[in-house]
Write a structure and sequence with these properties.
Length: 526
């Protein structure tokens, strides 16, 4: 009998089974898709965020699943061959490097394993990098995050990454954010997320670990000049300019005197407060601890918050985002947005009543963005066509430009699908359209010794010019003077009239005199 006849029959590899072949098909398809998406990402100038999601997160996960399927198939096949009814013996593979054929297969296996581990490491890093990107945070869940992403792109912090503020450095906060992301993914998948997204974010990292990495809290910034340009609702869109010195202050006990608004943020001072609502807009209790350890407790005089409720309420240590609560996601009211566009000459101030019409049409309720775009186009164009026929012909480009700019304002600040706008998220900087500073500085928070948290305008700012004032008093130093006598409304907070973002709604029906100037009924202050 020859050598071939004496040789034992060759046993097929345990790899030869249908389960493992399915795993090979899955792995091959995923690997080809990853390579294709990798090429797309290399060559594409503006690739979709979904390319990164599939290339570095989803497809690699499926590839690993395919490899596991191959291994499971081999284990199942080996167990099948070990059964008494099977004639083939289930032997483990023999590694004999003296055999050229086995040595060749072993080297191929080592090279492929090294390549797979290297690619996996690179892919894992790319997956980590992508989950830290602005595109991943803002565009993956498009409908949910669209308001935050669009507002972020128009904010002073647009060049930062979302994770710079929402996560910061360090492994612990990264892991915590990813676990929180699983909850968010669950909500998006089931459509159980809130509209609008609830603020403030309860699990935000302390500002000293994020904001303070760029902003120097101990520096005294002194007094800063700020100019406000406000355009009236009259036919000429009359400009009113206010120049104000903002007492920013700051500093530290080591570098010099502490003063101004940033006194609150000096590390030697500790301000703690309790809020009666989730948005931290109603603050009935404040505690101030100075550098010497002296504690002063202030309670709002007219609050319904009982001492027991104060004791049970969570206490918040004041930091940057208690005032700068919309540093990267700013939704401006209609009037503020239009004033900015007028000042930037994006809107033609010579178009009659443009401020009034723009604010009115932006303030209407809409169910979708598309509905708002059509209403703005027809509303602005129709107003000038119906009331200013000659001007409509002469200034058609300016009118078309106004339509486009007001549509841009809406798309930047209003998101009806998510029920998100400036009213959903109060801005605590200032006190014109929400309580802001007046949450504490209302003159009603009193200590048991009679000390009051003052609401004196001069604490924070000084008006040095107001174009609405008498010419002989245009340049002055003093508190803000309202352009008309408010009468019975003089003791109300600014937000009582201004919070709607619309032209002021008089508390009584003025009838035929509704278009009169305020000063025709109210005596103007001197």
């Amino acid at each position: 009998m020859d050598e071939e006849t004496d040789a034992a029959p060759k046993i097929p590899s345990v790899f030869h089974n249908y389960i493992s072949l399915v795993g090979v098909a899955i792995g091959t398809a995923c690997l080809a898709s990853i390579l294709l998406l990798f090429l797309i990402e290399l060559t594409g100038k503006n690739s979709s965020p979904y390319v990164g999601i599939f290339a570095w997160v989803i497809l690699p996960s499926i590839l690993v699943f395919g490899l596991l399927v191959i291994a499971v198939g081999m284990l199942v096949e080996r167990r099948r061959r070990r059964s008494p009814s099977h004639s083939e013996r289930a032997a483990y593979p023999t590694i004999d490097l003296n055999d050229p054929r086995r040595r060749r297969f072993f080297l191929i296996f080592v090279v492929l394993t090294f390549a797979f581990v290297s690619v996996s490491a690179f892919g894992s890093y790319r997956a980590y990098e992508h989950t830290e990107s602005v595109a991943f945070c803002g565009q993956t869940c498009h409908t949910v995050m669209k308001p935050e992403f669009v507002a972020f792109q128009n904010s002073p912090h647009a060049r930062l990454r979302c994770v710079d503020c929402h996560v910061g450095s360090g492994a612990s906060w990264y892991v915590r954010s990813k676990f929180n992301g699983v909850h968010q993914l669950y909500a998006v998948t089931l459509g159980s997320y809130e509209k609008p997204i609830k603020t403030p974010v309860q699990n935000m990292r302390p500002a000293r670990d994020t904001c303070a990495q760029c902003h120097w809290s101990e520096k005294n910034w002194g007094t800063q000049l700020k100019t406000f340009n406000e355009y009236a609702y009259d036919e000429k869109n009359t400009l009113r300019q206010i120049r104000m010195l903002i007492n920013v202050g700051g500093g530290s006990s080591e570098s010099g005197p502490m003063s101004g608004i940033h006194w609150h943020m000096n590390l030697a001072n500790e301000i703690t407060y309790a809020a009666a609502d989730e948005q931290l807009q109603i603050i009935p209790w404040v505690q101030a601890k100075d550098k010497n350890g002296n504690i002063t407790v202030y309670a709002a005089a007219n609050t319904r918050f009982t001492p027991e409720q104060v004791a049970a309420a969570p206490k918040h240590r004041m930091d940057c985002i208690d005032c700068h609560n919309r540093p990267a996601h700013i939704y401006n009211p209609p009037d503020v947005s239009l004033d900015s566009s007028f000042a930037a000459q994006k809107l033609d101030v010579s178009l009659p009543y443009l401020k009034r019409q723009g604010v009115e049409i932006l303030s209407r309720p809409y169910t979708t963005e598309d509905e708002a775009m059509k209403a703005i186009a027809s509303g602005i164009d129709g107003f000038y066509r119906a009331n200013y026929a000659t001007l409509y012909t002469e200034k058609r480009p300016a009118i078309d430009g106004a339509v486009g700019e007001i549509q841009r304002i809406y798309k930047t600040n209003f998101f009806p699908e998510m029920k998100t706008d400036w009213q959903a998220h109060p801005n605590n900087i200032g006190h014109l359209r929400s309580s802001g500073c007046f949450r504490c500085h209302d003159g009603e928070h009193v200590s048991n010794t009679g000390k009051v948290i003052r609401n004196d305008c001069k604490i924070c700012h000084t008006v040095i010019f107001d174009s609405a004032g008498p010419p002989e008093k245009n340049v002055k130093t003093g508190p803000f003077q309202h352009p008309v006598d408010l009468g019975a409304l003089a003791d109300r907070k600014c937000e009582f009239c201004h919070k709607s973002g619309k032209p002021f709604q008089h508390p009584v029906n003025l009838g035929d005199i509704s278009m009169f100037q305020c000063a025709e009924c109210h005596a103007k202050k001197s």
